[in-house]
Specification:
18 strands; 5 helices
């Protein structure tokens, strides 16, 4: 087996390097934590596709429950219709069975020879930055996984057209308009009627009414706030000062708890097919800096989420399996990194070559997919008028 080529990735001194160093920040998101997609444990030993049963609401067969006016029994056969034998309906329990499967990924650093560190500038400081960047890649991976699995699991995939076309598996591709407040009013009434606010760690009550979690971009929030009726309501409320605050300042607005996602999914519609526009560009060569994708700013469509945490959970495999005589090192499937420099007679005989490696794994465990919604709408990027004259 051929060994991996080792390149020196450390910075060395030619001219002096300042002790002050900098790290570019990664953009955070409401999908960073377990708040929207709670965490549970993967069930070992029950196959590759465990089943989960949802006990649905069910109604009587053929008729609603009716109440009879009764009096004394009159001696009829079996006293049918009397006070002892009212009209009876039968309710049969409805259930839905869903499955999940295990998914895994791994992230690792470049291979590093410690001998290069002898001649390099502040090796410990550089190692901290390498590890920090790997951790941010892990966080970004979890963001995308939670967001994408919520979209996949949710059965209310809607587009902002005249009929609010909704499908359990795909998004429509018809004539799609901009976001307006009435679209959220529609989903608020629909999801509250379904009971999506019940037993929901994020939903709250305000004046006795449910407040549902809404994940959206700051741009989308500005669109909602600038609605004529909404902005007038705000002007005459005790929240008027937020109109002069930064974009994304509103927390609760008209029945929704706003959670701002700077990386809200954006799309283009190309030849009748949806094409995702990523927030960051991935590296094309070793050592490339991750840049914000310029096409993200001009993408035509965007998603927002009414993100009930009851839609799904992430089932994380345990760190180890009790295999008796089968003994393996415990693994962490949350993307926490280990330093690995294993002995290899051919490629690492002195154990002075190592790298960071982290494992990620989860199963998207279905909950109640009807309790969430993803709405795709047309966005209109910021525009302004330039007056080149002076008065």
């Amino acid at each position: 087996m051929a060994c991996t080529d080792i390149d020196n990735h450390f910075q060395t001194e030619a001219n002096r390097i300042s002790n002050e160093t900098f790290s570019k920040n990664w953009v955070g998101s409401p999908w960073d934590t377990n708040e929207l997609v709670p965490k549970t444990t993967w069930p070992d030993g029950i196959g590759e596709n465990p089943n989960f049963i949802t006990y649905d609401r069910s109604m009587p067969i053929g008729a609603f429950v009716t109440f009879d006016t009764v009096s004394f029994n009159d001696g009829g056969e079996g006293d049918a219709g009397g006070s002892c034998t009212p009209t009876t309906v039968r309710v049969v329990q409805a259930t839905t069975r869903r499955t999940m499967s295990l998914k895994k990924a791994a992230i690792e650093s470049q291979k590093i020879c410690i001998e290069d560190g002898r001649m390099s500038w502040r090796i410990a400081n550089q190692a901290e930055h390498i590890l920090r960047n790997l951790k941010m890649n892990t966080r970004h991976a979890w963001q995308n996984a939670r967001r994408d699995e919520f979209t996949s699991m949710c059965t209310n995939k809607a587009v902002a057209d005249s009929s609010m076309s909704t499908n359990a598996s795909t998004f429509g591709t018809g004539t799609i308009g901009q976001l307006v407040r009435e679209m959220l009013d529609y989903w608020y009434d629909k999801l509250v009627a379904e009971g999506a606010y019940m037993d929901n760690g994020l939903a709250t009550q305000e004046n006795g009414q449910p407040v549902l979690p809404l994940v959206l971009s700051r741009e989308a929030q500005a669109t909602l706030v600038n609605n004529d009726s909404t902005i007038n309501n705000i002007r005459w409320s005790n929240s008027v000062d937020r109109l002069l605050g930064p974009r994304g300042s509103f927390v609760n607005l008209e029945g929704f708890k706003h959670m701002i996602d700077i990386q809200a999914p954006r799309w283009n519609l190309v030849d009748g097919a949806w094409v995702r526009v990523p927030f960051y560009n991935y590296a094309t060569t070793a050592g490339d800096a991750a840049s914000v994708n310029p096409d993200y700013a001009t993408a035509e469509y965007e998603d927002l989420f009414i993100a009930s945490p009851q839609v799904l959970k992430f089932a994380i495999p345990g760190s180890s399996i009790n295999g008796g005589a089968l003994s393996f090192p415990a693994q962490d499937y949350m993307g926490n990194f280990r330093w690995i420099n294993k002995y290899d007679l051919e490629c690492n005989p002195d154990e002075n070559i190592g790298y960071f490696r982290g494992l990620l794994g989860y199963g998207a465990q279905p909950g109640i997919p009807e309790y969430g919604a993803v709405l795709r709408f047309r966005r209109c990027p910021l525009a302004w008028t330039v007056d080149a004259t002076c008065s």
